[in-house]
Amino acid sequence: MPKIKKLSDNEAKKIAAGEVVDRPSNVVKELIENSVDAGATDISIYLNEAGKNLIKIIDNGCGMSFDDAILCFEHHATSKINSIEDLNSLKTFGFRGEALSSISAISKIKLITKEPQSEIGSHLELNDGKILFHKKISCSTGTQLEISDLFYNVPARLKFLKKTETELRQTFLLFQAFCLSNLNIHFKLFHEGIEIYNCPPVSDLSSRISQLWDYNFAQNIIFFSESEQSINLEISGGISSHNFSRFNKNQIFLFVNGRWVKNYNLIKSILKGYMNVLQEGRFPAAFIFINLPSNQLDVNVHPKKEEVHFISTKKIEQFLQNLVKKNLENYLSKQLNKKIEFHDEKIKNNFIPATQTTLDIEQIPFFEPTDSFNAENHLITQNNLNIEWGSFPEKIEEKKLNVDFVDIENNLKVIGQFKLTYILIEKDDGLFLMDQHAAHERILYELFSKRFHEVATVPLIFPIIITLKESEIQFIEDYFEIFHLNGIDIERFSKDQLVIKTIPVHIKDIKMEELINQIIIWVEENQNLEKNDFFKIINEKIRAQMACKAAVKAGDPLSKEQIVQLIQNLERAENNFTCPHGRPTGWLLSAFEIEKKFKRKF
Ligand code: ADP
Ligand code: MG
Known about the structure:
Blueprint: H1 9-20, H2 24-37, E1 42-48, E2 54-59, H3 68-71, H4 99-105, E3 108-114, E4 121-127, E5 130-137, E6 142-148, H5 155-160, H6 164-181, E7 186-191, E8 194-199, H7 205-212, H8 215-219, E9 221-228, E10 233-240, E11 252-256, E12 259-261, H9 264-273, E13 286-291, E14 297-298, E15 309-310, H10 313-338, H11 345-350, H12 393-398, H13 400-403, E16 406-408, E17 412-418, E18 422-427, E19 430-435, H14 436-450, E20 457-467, H15 470-477, H16 480-485, E21 489-494, E22 497-504, H17 512-526, H18 531-550, H19 560-572, E23 586-590, H20 591-597
Parallel strand pairs: 1-7, 11-13
Antiparallel strand pairs: 1-2, 2-6, 3-4, 3-6, 4-5, 7-8, 9-10, 10-13, 11-12, 14-15, 16-17, 17-18, 18-19, 19-23, 20-22, 21-22
């Protein structure tokens, strides 16, 4: 075994740097934290190539003295704590004294800084962790830090840097997070000299959300502030209403004592609160601020300080879940009531509350709608009444078609459709119940997969134009081949628009915009996979999604011919037991089981 050697300080720093900074957005995060800790009220960030080439940050914070301007690049040099005990009363983001030292080991640095009480500031430049020069300079109070050529001296890391667009999105997220949790600070973000965000101080969260996204989005947020005395817990913030959803969790922001954190369990609690409100695969926006005494948590569990541990984890999760659920319910019932304005007291007294779910026709007051009634309200006028007329005799007549027996090969008899969802089939050995959606989904999925290279397509007479963010288009452009393989001919139309010219025959009726947005998210989530795995996974997902969207739905009445086709095609399918998402396509209630229930067999 070779002799043990101690690594030089600089090499050790380079290796350690990987723990704190492995991508430009980490550097941006550390620098913004430092500016906020320095009490800045104005922070501007300038990036080139998403920060790979240059990250420049200018703040008007407390600045550093001539000596501190050098000291701050030493390992474990911090002005924020003296001992580990201080973590219990920590008020700053930083405390490890590692960020600047790590960053200086893997980049070229220029620092200009001045304290308010000094006449003169300092200008320092470092390369590879070594000081090139340090001199006095006349400048304004605050700190300006330029980090260029990130990882220029660590080629192994350089190789792993993500595409500019990916990196930029990550930086946008953290920028948004800082803006959300520091309403009093004026934040600006520039990329390649272009202003991306300009967010002056605001007095409330709603205004910040409007600045970062848009006014309409902010109108869809339900705000709250609640506390749980027993553990001194306070949770405030906002969640999106049932009217809004996204394909990913990127708009769920969690802050613990002002620090943006990632916590899988807390996100799960939020999503549980949304149960039955959002469709599967859709996610809300949430801006959750959790405040609790610092001795109730540990922030020192992650090198990048992205995670925290709580003492009363379960209690917090439960509280959050209930809070989300309660606020959504309150909002929903308020919305339903809000849409009805009454001019006439008599009518008001006759009003049936929106929460009443079982409506007896006899009880419903009949009256003419006045101008103030909103047509969207389903509970008031007879015309808009939310009643299923399915039990009426005429309706049964209409469906007679499906109640007939149909003889087809293999000795099957189709009894009919149950709840317009399941096809009931009499077989020699029992009653087979087939889920029409799951079955059709499986059939289409196999069809799409088999015709991998010859998907039947139709050119669109009116091509579909889809507007996306410019960065999203730049990102997805490299992956157009995947769309192609699945029968979707797509091209860039303008800087923020795509045009779809051809689509597979079977998906004529599906919303392409939704599908494209969903594909972008899958590509993003899986882009780090090895090429073959990546193609396999993305293709499977696209086909499953196309099959799901194009398949008949639960609730669709089917003709005799359609039912026969479904049964025959499902029999031919290779994997006919489950739909592409793993749900069963059908199951057999054996004759023996049925007879046992009726006590004919024991
Ligand atoms: P930490 O933030 O954990 O203390 P850093 O390496 O990020 O460690 O920073 C080291 C020190 O440099 C800080 O403790 C602070 O005193 C000083 N410093 C860094 N950035 C700034 C800034 N923008 N303004 C004033 N002081 C700063
Ligand atoms: Mg710091």
